């Protein structure tokens, strides 16, 4: 679902607001989460605004979802011996605050009581 207002992530992709960029290609950008919940806490974000959450992405573009997962694996290989958690908060009640699909890549010890 696209929205009329650009998401905070679209503004980062457009370089309208700054972010610590970890990786980027034509389909995704990976940035450091501004409020990290673990020693490695990177967000992998499809550049398209078309999908609000992972269910929409899986239904609409499964290849792009696979690319998000492969990007997460590559980041974990580089920064955390290849082992990681992948979290997609889906819906407000599940803690989603930005309705532009993104994966949290988490590695190392998480802050107590949180998944992302
Ligand atoms: P959600 O709660 O939607 O699953 O995750 C949104 C994530 O985006 C949160 O972990 C939050 O810290 C992160 N975030 C929100 N605004 C910004 C920002 O401007 N820059 C960065 N790097 N991360 C952000």
Describe the structure.
Residues 8-115 form the HIT domain. The chain has 116 residues and is α+β, with helices and mostly antiparallel strands. The chain has a single domain (8-107), classed as HIT-like (HIT family, subunit A). It is built from 3 helices and 5 strands. A 5-stranded antiparallel β-sheet has the order 1-2-3-5-4, with helices on one face. α2 packs across α3. The protein is globular. It binds guanosine-5'-monophosphate. Guanosine-5'-monophosphate binds at residues 8, 19, 31-35, 43, 89, 95-98.
Mean pLDDT: 94
CATH architecture: 2-Layer Sandwich
Number of domains: 1
- Rg over CA atoms, rounded to whole Å, is 13 Å
> What is the ordering of alpha helices and beta strands?
HEEEHHEE
Bound molecules: guanosine-5'-monophosphate
CATH class: Alpha Beta
| Classification by helices and strands | alpha+beta
- How many individual β-strands? 5
How many DSSP helices?
3
Major sheet description: 5 strands, antiparallel
Tell me the strand order in the biggest sheet: 1-2-3-5-4
Helical residue percent? 25-40%
Q: Approximately what portion of the residues adopt beta-strand conformation?
A: 15-25%
Provide a brief overview of the structure.
The protein is 27% helix and 21% strand.
Explain the layout of strands and helices:
Blueprint lengths: L7 H6 L7 E4 L3 E5 L7 E7 L7 H7 L1 H18 L5 E3 L15 E5 L9
Antiparallel strand pairs: 1-2, 2-3, 3-5, 4-5
Helix pairs in contact: 2-3
The chain binds guanosine-5'-monophosphate (5GP).
Guanosine-5'-monophosphate binds next to strand 2.
